[in-house]
Amino acid sequence: MEIAYFPGCTLSTKAKGLDRSARASLQALGLELREIPDWNCCGAAFPLTNDDLRLSGAVRNLVRTAEMGQEELLALCSTCYNVTKRANRVMREDAARRDRINYFIEAEYDGHVRVVHLLDLLRDRFGFEALRERVTRPLEGLKLGAYYGCFLLRPAKEIALDDPETPHVFEDFLAALGAEPVVYPHRGECCGSYLAVGAPDVALEASYRILNAARLAGADALVTSCPLCHYNLDRPQREMVARYGGFRPLPVFYITQVLGVALGLDSSEFGFERHYVDPRPLLARVAQTVTAQ
Amino acid sequence: MSAGKGIPRALIIGVGIAGMQASLDVANAGFEVVLVERKPSIGGHMLQLSETFPTLDCAQCILTPRTVEVGQHPRIRLYTYSEVIGVEGEVGHFRVRIRRKPAYVNWSTCTGCGLCQEKCPAKVPSEFEEQVGVRKAIYTLSPQAVPNKPVIDRESCIYFLRAKCGACQKLCPTGAIDFEQQETIVEEEVGAIVVATGFGLYPLPEIGEYGAGQLPDVLSGIQFERLLSASGPTAGQVRRPSDGKEPKEVVFVQCVRSRDPEHGMPYCSRICCMYTAKHAMLYKHRVHDGQAYIFYIDIRSAGKNYEEFVQRAMEEDDVLYIRGKVSKVFQQDGKIIVWGSDTLAGKPVEIAADMVVLASAIVPDPGARPLAEVLGIELDENGFFREANDNLRPMETPRPGIFLAGAAQAAKDIPDTVSQASGAAAKVLTLFQPWRSEETH
Asked: Which residues of chain B make contact with A202, given a CB cutoff of 8 A?
């Protein structure tokens, strides 16, 4: 089984761990990722400026996918997924805008490609039960909080991955890996996003509240598929320790890192060394405890 | 019967306050009424209420004389635990088929002594108590039930589930328990029909962002009503379902899925502003050192003595009104955290509460759609029964001889419901007057 893959800018730079663990994990599951040729930035700002010029970048990637003869496009980064899926919807459902964008980028694209994320790919095409059977190193004893953030679920009618208020697809995925999913109230709250640039205190507070809520609910670590969320949730923990009394750092995994570990893959290329809060001691401790039992 | 005359007998479907008012008006004018209620006893939602706005009358005290009058009226034939499944004919000559569900109790020999309910070992959440209280597998809706005859719920009865127990059968002093009872179909002929099937409430589990259906201390307004009621599961004391403690901070949220075309219903549910003011007031009357907060979009208190009532809640009972919507409710550190906005101050608000009460939207009764098909009448875009004309014929349907009363047509409060029910009864009586035979005088 093969699928077209759009890594996006961040996975090629800051979030290499997400990209590498994804390639390794999906290969182990028999899903061959075929990177679309000559791809470009998704546009990233669909939620901010929904104009045709902005969309054309994402549409261009979809055109590349169609040219490969692929029906499905995998985007791992939550923002890439959100932007590309919504741009695709415009092409499918809004004839006037479709014509304008096609004219502008000299294409004839009709929106037929299906844009998927790792979660719906595994849930709908591979199946979580099938995934469970492929797990060789179950994450037993690991209490993981799924962090959805904003873009994975909203707007509900356009993304339609799960109910944005009471989602469970991410938790189901973690349970399939043998981990214990921890449901905490802030799993769909914003991490602060780009406010990390313009108003870092606001982003720090937002991210702190998410980490703190997960800690209070008993999580050992968070899991996300968004590089920007990871940026806000991981590195600023240095500042949080100084600013918020009693704060204890919490590792933040990428979704495909925990997948790769559970599949028993060599994780030396998963980029753990680039995390501010190194998740490896936690993995080692849990592995030891489970073995000791 | 001579040609051109219809049958001067009315079918009234649904026996809440609307159906009772309409049937008493028609019956007291000298005509026969066939009354059909889906539940085991009559009274509807009003019987679940603690006190009514704006007078704080005890709802059961003012209602039970009426339920008794309906139950004993010589011209009212009451079919409870029954449903209308077929209607043929036209105005003046409707042939109605009524399905009587098996109660598994022979009501003609049952004396209503209550021994079966006392001894039944199977306890399940009670519909009448809105899940904050329990009932037995053999039950009446309330101690004041009319008729005071129990029914057995097959889903929870140990005899039906495992062919054991049968305690009620062994103990019944008149041998009224009949596990073999079957449903029966009765037919009636009537000249006019009044639909008074009332309303439902937006289902709590679908209000995920407020923790509804997940957090036990996030309640619907009607559940809170049961906690306030002297006949309710806590005998009128406000207690948290989770641990039985008295809540000291209670947040009330108005417009939950009302006025919300994106997630819920586009319309105003009309009664929530008033009953929420009442809830906060009654809470303060029971918990003097407690604090009540109300999140509202607007306060809609159009009605006689309504605005004065809301002012009283604010001024005399120190209820804190916050203009804005609540975005999220969740549990943390043993508290229920409420996030909202204060749009007058332009600031976000966070309240660590002990209990949250949601004024969830009034929605059409789930039985409205199938009934509309049986009756050959229409529902409106929101699922309420459509009136013949919004302005001038609000209690008639486009089908001659079929009338509407109460919240089946649109969300409304008790005085408006009663008014419309009397209006529908007047329409029926106008129709019946020329059909009156000599002997019915």
From this structure: none
Q: What is the ipTM of this complex?
A: 0.86
Report chain B residues whose CB lies below 8 A from the CB of A185: 328, 330-332, 337
For B164-199, write each residue's pLDDT tens digit. Answer: 999 999 999 999 999 999 999 999 999 999 999 999
Which residue of chain A comes nearest to B262, CA vs CA? A157
Q: Helix, strand, coil % (nearest 5) of chain A?
A: 50, 10, 40
Q: Answer left, alpha or beta for residue B431, where phi above 0 means left and psi between -120 and 50 means alpha.
A: alpha
Contact between A4 and A34 under an 8 Å Cβ cutoff? The reply is: yes
Q: Strand, coil or helix: what is B397?
A: coil
Q: Note whether B332 contacts A: Cβ–Cβ < 8 A.
A: yes
Say yes or no: do domains B9-101+183-198+365-440 and B203-361 share a fold. Answer: yes
Instruction: Assess contact for B211 and B330: CB atoms under 8 A.
Output: yes
- B1 pLDDT tier (thresholds 50, 70, 90): very low
For an interface test with A, which of B204, B207, B209, B336 has the most A Cβ atoms less than 10 Å from its Cβ? B209
Fold of B203-361: FAD/NAD(P)-binding domain (3.50.50)
Per-residue pLDDT, B441: 47
Name the residue among B289, B196, B197 with its Cα closest to residue B238.
Answer: B289
**Tell me, what's the pLDDT at A48?**
65
Q: Are B98 and B85 spatial neighbours (Cβ–Cβ below 8 Å)?
A: yes
- B2 pLDDT exceeds 70? no
Walk me through the domains of chain A, giving residue ranges and CATH numbers: 2-118 (1.20.1050.140), 137-292 (3.40.50.11810)
Second-level CATH architecture of B9-101+183-198+365-440:
3-Layer(bba) Sandwich (3.50)
Nearest CA in chain B to A185: B330
Tell me the pLDDT tens digit for each residue of B113-122: 999 999 999 9
| CA distance to partner chain A, nearest, from residue B351 (Å) | 15
C-alpha distances in Å from residue B306, one per residue of B176, B313, B317, B338:
48, 11, 16, 28
Mean pLDDT of the A248-256 span: 97
User: Taking Cα atoms as reference points, which of A245, A236, A248, A240 lies closest to residue A276?
Assistant: A236
Residue ranges per structural domain of chain B: 9-101+183-198+365-440, 115-171, 203-361
Q: What is the pLDDT of residue A46?
A: 65
Residue B208 has its nearest CB partner, among A163, A213, A216, at A163
Instruction: Round to whole Å and give the CA distance between A274 and B3.
Output: 94
Residue pLDDT, tens place only, A59-76: 999 999 999 999 999 999
Q: How far B206 CA sits from the closest chain A CA (Å)?
A: 9
Report the Cα B275 to chain-centroid distance in Å: 14
Q: If DSSP codes are grouped into helix, strand and coil, which group holds residue B119?
A: helix
pLDDT on residue A289: 75
Written as six digits, the tokens of A253 are 């995994």
Residue of chain A nearest B338, judged by CA positions: A185
Q: Using beta carbons and an 8 Å cutoff, which residues of A are at the interface with B?
A: 163, 165-166, 185, 213, 216
Q: Is the pLDDT of residue A287 over 70?
A: yes
